[in-house]
């Protein structure tokens, strides 16, 4: 197969993570970038030999692009995905896949009608420890899954954000932005099919009128249960419990005593700050997204600094994990799906099912009741 030529829609924080690893995905090359900000286009053109577009639609029309990575704000994921699919481009979307289930449906339909692949990107199911846990579960060695616990504490709500990122109506706040990560982890480990959700979400930072914490209980079709909790107010960081290793496998230097943010900031200020932020150091370990502990009938699994710990009647065993590719994993999966002419994972229906869980968390909290789900998709491995 010829090389897969990638265009990136939205040249902000997420795009930087993608751009730094494209070279790891063999057979993939950067072809274009699109953004509405002139400074972003200029900075991109300076660093990369690729076309620039000030309109995503123009990039989607380009003959020099085969696939588009949608890294624009959440409210644009559906519009940009449909646009790309209608021009015959394969699509990788950032999480959350969309802001509503109706949008997710439009995206899935557009991909199917135009014969292109739609991949739910930036999912923690690409993290090797999550994959390895799932492989152990699927092998049956520990019996069935009983309970999955995942928890995270970080400063998500204390990072410089523009207003739309902390506006729940626009797909902002902790549930929309970080809920998909924990949901993908527990859905993958639990087999994918969540029956119902009961959650309580909180808005306890007076300077941000959006969710900054949540606790949710997910009841799986097969009787397993998952509990997910997240606190993004920044008073405590979970890496203190994970050998100082954080998201992406980076060692985290925790500081304290920073002045708390007074609210969202102007876009110009955010992007100027981001331009000054030094890139993270080398990845030294497997990625941790908080602390995840899986209880099975005959044992327990959790992450070790570089793999997994398996606890059984025989004691504690170390299990190695596969290599980590970071954000290149999505590109490798898309290309492999095209070369091998097979479905990609996670696809649009997986992304929609994860979005359904996140929406149910918001609704459950508001209505103070359990929400039954209807659009779940199984984990295929
Ligand atoms: N911040 C992160 O670390 C991170 C990581 C992974 C994924 N994500 C996801 O990536 C997406 C983008 O988040 P981000 O943090 O990069 O935001 P960001 O604000 O840093 O970047 C978004 C970019 O999209 C551009 N943009 C806005 N409207 C546009 C339009 N109509 N057409 C073209 N470009 C447009 C903006 O100018 C900006 O450059 C979100 O879905 C988010 O959930 C963010």
Give a quick rundown of the structure.
By secondary structure, the chain is an alpha/beta fold. Helix content is 31%, strand content 22%.
Would you write up a description of this structure?
The protein is an alpha/beta fold and 381 residues long. The chain has two domains: 4-116, 3-Layer(aba) Sandwich (Rossmann fold); 124-324 and 357-372, 2-Layer Sandwich (Dihydrodipicolinate Reductase, domain 2), CATH 3.30.360. Helix content is 31%, strand content 22%. The protein has ten helices and 15 strands. It has a nine-stranded mixed sheet with strand order 14-13-12-11-7-10-9-8-15. Helix 4 (77-86) runs parallel beside helix 5 and helix 5 (101-113) packs antiparallel against helix 10. 46% of the residues are buried. Residues 9-14, 17, 34-37, 40, 56, 71-74, 76, 94-95, 122, 177 line the site of nicotinamide-adenine-dinucleotide (NAD).
The CATH topology of the largest domain: Dihydrodipicolinate Reductase, domain 2
Ligands and ions found: nicotinamide-adenine-dinucleotide
Mean pLDDT: 96
Q: Strand order of the main beta sheet, please? A: 14-13-12-11-7-10-9-8-15
Number of helices: 10
Please identify the structural class as seen in this structure. Answer: alpha/beta
N-to-C order of helices and strands: EHEHEHEHEHEHEHEEEHEEEEHHE
* Total beta-strand segments: 15
Largest sheet: 9 strands, mixed
Radius of gyration: 20 Å
Tally of separate domains: 2
């Amino acid at each position: 197969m010829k090389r897969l030529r990638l265009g990136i829609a939205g040249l902000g924080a997420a795009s930087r993570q993608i751009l730094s690893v494209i070279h790891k995905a063999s057979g993939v090359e950067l072809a274009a970038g699109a953004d509405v900000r002139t400074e972003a286009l200029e900075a991109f053109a300076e660093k990369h030999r690729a076309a620039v577009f000030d309109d995503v639609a123009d990039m989607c029309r380009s003959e020099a692009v085969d696939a588009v990575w949608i890294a624009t704000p959440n409210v644009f994921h559906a519009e940009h995905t449909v646009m790309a699919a209608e021009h015959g481009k394969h699509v990788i979307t950032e999480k959350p896949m969309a802001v509503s289930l109706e949008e997710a449906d439009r995206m899935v339909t557009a991909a199917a009608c135009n014969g292109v692949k739609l991949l739910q990107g930036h999912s923690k199911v690409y993290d090797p420890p999550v994959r390895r846990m799932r492989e152990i579960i699927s092998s049956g060695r520990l019996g069935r899954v009983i309970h999955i616990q995942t928890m995270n504490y970080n400063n998500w709500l204390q990072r410089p954000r523009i207003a739309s990122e902390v506006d729940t109506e626009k797909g902002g706040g902790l549930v929309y932005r970080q809920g998909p990560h924990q949901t993908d982890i527990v859905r993958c480990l639990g087999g994918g099919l969540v029956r119902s959700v009961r959650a309580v979400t909180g808005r306890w930072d007076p300077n941000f009128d959006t969710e900054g914490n949540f606790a949710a209980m997910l009841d799986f079709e097969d009787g397993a249960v998952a509990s997910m909790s997240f606190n993004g107010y920044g008073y405590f960081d979970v890496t203190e419990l994970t050998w100082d290793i954080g998201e992406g496998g980076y060692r985290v230097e925790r500081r304290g005593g920073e002045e708390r943010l007074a609210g969202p900031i102007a876009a110009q200020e955010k992007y100027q700050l981001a331009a000054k932020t030094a890139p993270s150091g080398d990845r030294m370990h497997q990625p941790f997204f908080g602390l995840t502990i899986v209880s099975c009938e005959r044992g327990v699994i959790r992450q070790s600094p570089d793999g997994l710990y398996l606890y059984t009647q025989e004691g504690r065993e170390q299990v190695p994990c596969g290599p980590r590719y970071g954000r290149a994993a999505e590109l490798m999966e898309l290309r492999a799906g095209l070369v091998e002419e097979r479905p990609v994972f996670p696809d649009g229906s997986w992304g929609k099912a994860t979005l359904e869980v996140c929406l149910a968390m918001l609704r459950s909290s508001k209505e103070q009741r359990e929400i039954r789900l209807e659009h779940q998709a199984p984990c295929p491995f």
